[in-house]
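Whiteboard transcription, Tuesday session. T.W. wrote the C-alpha cells on the left side:
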C-alpha cells in the first residue's frame, strides 16, 4: 500500500505574531500613558552566537512594541553568584516588569537553580521552577513562551486537541515538559518521548499532533508521521551557513501530513511576541 499524498499546509506564525505584538503595543501605549512604561530585562552570560541573535530579535521586537528592553550583559565568565545577584536586584526593581535569563549559561552554572531567583510575577518566560509547578497544578502562572507559542499556533490554525493524541519529542524543563502540561490541560492524550525512547517512529506515527523539541536536525522524517498529522517544529538548529533549521525534514514530510510549521517563521516569531505580551500583562498587574 502506498501512502496517500495529502495537501500539506504551511502553518506559519508570522501573522499571528504580528497580531499579538499589535495588541501588546496598544497595551504598552496605555501603560506608558498611565506612568508605568513596561520594561523587560534580559540577563545574558554567554557569547554564544545564536543566543546573541535571539536576544537581538527580542530587543528589536520590544522596541517596535514600545517596551523598553534592558540587556544586562554579564559576560561568559560570570559566576552563579553574579547572575543570582543580578536576578535578585531586577526582581526587586519596581521599574522592571519582565525578566529573562538567557541560555546557555557559563559551564558549571545550573539554570533551574538560578531561575528560582526570578520573582514569579516577573517570570515572563516561565523559568522559575515555581511557574512550572503552578502550571502543573492548574494555577495561574506564566508558561514558558515557547510552550505557549505551540498552543497559540495550534489554536490559531484551529487544531482540535481534546481527546486527540499529542506526542511531544523532548522533555526539557523549558520546552518539552511545559508543552506537555499545556496540552494535557487542553484534554489531549499526551505522550512524551526523549533520548531513551525505544522506537520513536512507532510512537510518533500514532500522533494526531506531533511536537518536536529535540534540537536534532532531520529527526522527524516521513517514517515518523501519519498522513493526518499536524506537526509543530520547535527545533531551532543553526546551520553551517548561518541559517536556521528545525527538527523536521520538511521535504520528506511534505505531502504526507496535514500541516507543518516552517523554521524560521513558525514557532519562533510567536514565542518572541508572547514574551512581550507576558511583559505587558506583568506590568498591568502591578
Ligand atoms: P530544548 O531546549 O530544545 O528543549 P534540550 O537540549 O534541552 O532542548 O533537550 C533536548 C530533548 O530532546 C531532551 O529531552 C532529549 O531527551 C530529547 N532528544 C534528543 N535527541 C533525541 C532523539 N534522537 N530522540 C528522542 N528524543 C531526543
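and on the right, the sequence the group agreed on:
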Amino acid at each position: 500500500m502506498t501512502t496517500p499524498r495529502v495537501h500539506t499546509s504551511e502553518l506559519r506564525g508570522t501573522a499571528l505574531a504580528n497580531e499579538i505584538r499589535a495588541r501588546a503595543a496598544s497595551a504598552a501605549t496605555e501603560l506608558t500613558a498611565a506612568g508605568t512604561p513596561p520594561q523587560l530585562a534580559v540577563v545574558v552570560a554567554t557569547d554564544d552566537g545564536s543566543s546573541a541573535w535571539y536576544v537581538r530579535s527580542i530587543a528589536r521586537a520590544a522596541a517596535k512594541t514600545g517596551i523598553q528592553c534592558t540587556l544586562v550583559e554579564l559576560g561568559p565568565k560570570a559566576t552563579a553568584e553574579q547572575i543570582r545577584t543580578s536576578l535578585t536586584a531586577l526582581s526587586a526593581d519596581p521599574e522592571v516588569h519582565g525578566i529573562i535569563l538567557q541560555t546557555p549559561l557559563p559551564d558549571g552554572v545550573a539554570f533551574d537553580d538560578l531561575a528560582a531567583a526570578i520573582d514569579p510575577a516577573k517570570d515572563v518566560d516561565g523559568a522559575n521552577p515555581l511557574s512550572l509547578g503552578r502550571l502543573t497544578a492548574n494555577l495561574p502562572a506564566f508558561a514558558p513562551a515557547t510552550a505557549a507559542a505551540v498552543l497559540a499556533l495550534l489554536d490559531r490554525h484551529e487544531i482540535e486537541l481534546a481527546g486527540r493524541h499529542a506526542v511531544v519529542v523532548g522533555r526539557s524543563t523549558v520546552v518539552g515538559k511545559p508543552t506537555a502540561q499545556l496540552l494535557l490541560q487542553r484534554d489531549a492524550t499526551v505522550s512524551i518521548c526523549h533520548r531513551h525512547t525505544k522506537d520513536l517512529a512507532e510512537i510518533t506515527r500514532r500522533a494526531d499532533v506531533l511536537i518536536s523539541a529535540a534540537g536534532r536536525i532531520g529527526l522527524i522524517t516521513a517514517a515518523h508521521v501519519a498522513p493526518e498529522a499536524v506537526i509543530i517544529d520547535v527545533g531551532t538548529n543553526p546551520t553551517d551557513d548561518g541559517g536556521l533549521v528545525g527538527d523536521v525534514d520538511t521535504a520528506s514530510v511534505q505531502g504526507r501530513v496535514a500541516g507543518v510549521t516552517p523554521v524560521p517563521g513558525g514557532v519562533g516569531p510567536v514565542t518572541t511576541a508572547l514574551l512581550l505580551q507576558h511583559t505587558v500583562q506583568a506590568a498591568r498587574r502591578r
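Someone added at the bottom: The chain has a mean pLDDT of 96.
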